[in-house]
Design brief:
With about 475 residues, the chain is mostly helical. The chain has 21 helices and no strands. Helix 1 (about 1-30) crosses helix 15, helix 4 packs across helix 5 (about 105-120) and helix 9 crosses helix 21.
């Protein structure tokens, strides 16, 4: 009898400790009591000891590192690749086009961020989406003194909606787990996803209007006048609708006036039309190479890490044939590479302990078990709601291959089709893209120079609301 009770208590203990570990991590990083890297490493190590499996910590960590090593390699070489492309001027026309559309208006800039992130997300990879979006938009946000968490939040939500594309990952995982055709899952979901994307654009407009009221607005003509005069425009204190914003010549890419060197340094080189790294004669080569790389990624010609490794080597060799220049470009992007890859390997400790100790499995089972029997006929709705916390606290693999089949089986017992369950499981993706277990989010906050805790506090409520809008639209259209 005592043994039986112990067997019951142990899974419950793992469930409680699992939730406690995640809550401790989120509280500490949002309160800025620990850096994300330190929290990702030390907190799971401590809880691993609490579980009584401290002796196996090394195995869990190595398993986590093994699982995430390809992702870390992909991010390392993708950052080098897109960093060099920024250096040589591939994205300068995009930046100039956005500036013309935005006209230094915070509202247009935020909406432009959402539109750009959604368009670039068509390649199906969050990391590249965030690299391109932040590279294009960061100078505008920084110069206009706009909130950088608005940029990261809007980009993450737009990418989260688009992440449901069949080649983006979640839809393919749901199809594989339930043995369904990906197109049968995705195509009927398009109306609901379009509503979700429209909601992100509307939300971007609202957030942009809020930023406009706080900062004021300049027209492009005013910016150009200030560029010629190289004088500082009136600086507004913020808060009033008619406030002014501080802008200098470097907004449109000119050389700095010699002041505020910390603001006019590397942050704005992407807009400097006279930087030494530009390669205008190789523009079409670089453009075609990038299109070819993204096409090969979508068609899965080679593993993504291999594609970016080859791409980085090729773009460095062609654009900077001299070895000292190549070393300089690698050194210029070393900080981003180290920050992101370090965060990914730290996350490997977190995921390794969650999975190795069995905490994540017991957490998922507990959440499924607490669903009342009366909710059986509404399992698609339940799955849609559960997809928010579960895909935030778990990897997509863990949710779609570990939890979704269990939920689908429970739904089938009450006449709910696997297709409805699969569609409902996609609802949580806008929130999932800001999960601490998603490597791409560290690219986003790292390049935007935003604290992960600040990003989390800002985006969670809006991303969760976006998920619920998609779920509501799916039910309204009879898709879920």
């Amino acid at each position: 009898m005592g043994c039986s009770r112990a067997n019951v208590r142990y899974p419950l203990m793992l469930t409680i400790l699992g939730f406690a570990m995640i809550a401790t991590f989120l509280v500490l990083i949002m309160m800025k009591k620990m850096s994300p890297i330190a929290a990702l490493v030390l907190i799971p190590a401590l809880f691993c000891v609490f579980v009584g499996k401290g002796a196996k910590l090394g195995d869990y960590v190595l398993d986590g590192v093994t699982d995430l090593a390809p992702t870390a390699a992909m991010l390392m070489f993708a950052i080098v690749y897109f960093g060099v492309m920024i250096d040589v001027g591939l994205f300068d026309p995009i930046v100039r086009g956005i500036l013309k559309f935005c006209k230094a208006d915070p509202m247009r800039i935020v909406v432009g961020t959402a539109v750009l992130a959604a368009i670039v997300s068509l390649d199906g990879d969050g990391s590249t989406t965030f690299m391109i979006t932040v590279s294009a938009m960061y100078p505008l946000y920084k110069r206009l003194k706009m909130s950088l968490v608005v940029m990261t939040g809007v980009a993450a939500m737009a990418n989260g909606v688009m992440n449901t594309l069949p080649w983006g990952g979640p839809t393919a995982r749901a199809a594989t787990a339930l043995k369904l055709d990906a197109s049968d899952i995705f195509v009927p979901m398009i109306p609901a996803l379009l509503v979700g994307l429209l909601f992100v654009f509307v939300l971007s407009y609202v957030l942009g209007v809020r930023e406009r009221r706080r900062l004021g607005v300049l027209t492009l003509d005013e910016v150009l006048v200030e560029e010629k005069e190289t004088e500082t425009v009136l600086v507004g204190a913020g808060g009033s609708g008619d406030g002014k914003v501080s802008m200098r010549k470097s907004v449109t890419g000119g050389a700095g006036s010699g002041t505020d060197a910390d603001e006019q340094g590397d942050d704005f080189q992407g807009l400097d039309p006279h930087r030494a790294t530009l390669r205008p004669k190789l523009y079409w080569f670089n453009a075609l190479l990038t299109v070819g790389l993204l096409t090969a990624m979508i068609m899965e010609v080679l593993p993504i890490p291999v594609l970016f490794l080859l791409g980085a080597a090729l773009v460095l060799t062609v654009n900077f044939p001299h070895i000292p220049d190549q070393k300089a470009r690698i050194a210029a992007h070393a900080e981003n590479v180290l920050n992101v890859s370090g965060m990914v390997f730290a996350a490997a400790v977190f995921t390794g302990v969650l999975q190795g100790t069995g905490m994540v499995d017991h957490m998922a089972k507990w959440m499924v078990d607490v669903i009342p029997g009366s909710m059986g006929p509404h399992m698609a709705l339940v799955t849609g709601i559960l997809s928010l916390p579960l895909t935030y606290f778990m990897s997509n693999d863990g949710f779609y291959f570990g939890v979704l089949p269990v939920l689908a089986e429970a739904g089938a017992a009450h006449g709910v089709s696997p297709l409805e369950m699969a569609r409902a499981s996609l609802v949580g993706q806008p929130l999932h893209m800001s999960s601490p277990l998603v490597p791409a989010v560290y690219v986003l906050v790292g390049m935007a120079k935003v604290e992960f805790g600040d990003h989390t506090k800002f985006v969670v409520k809006w991303a969760a609301l976006t998920c619920l809008v998609i779920l509501g639209a799916g039910m309204l259209f009879g898709i879920i």
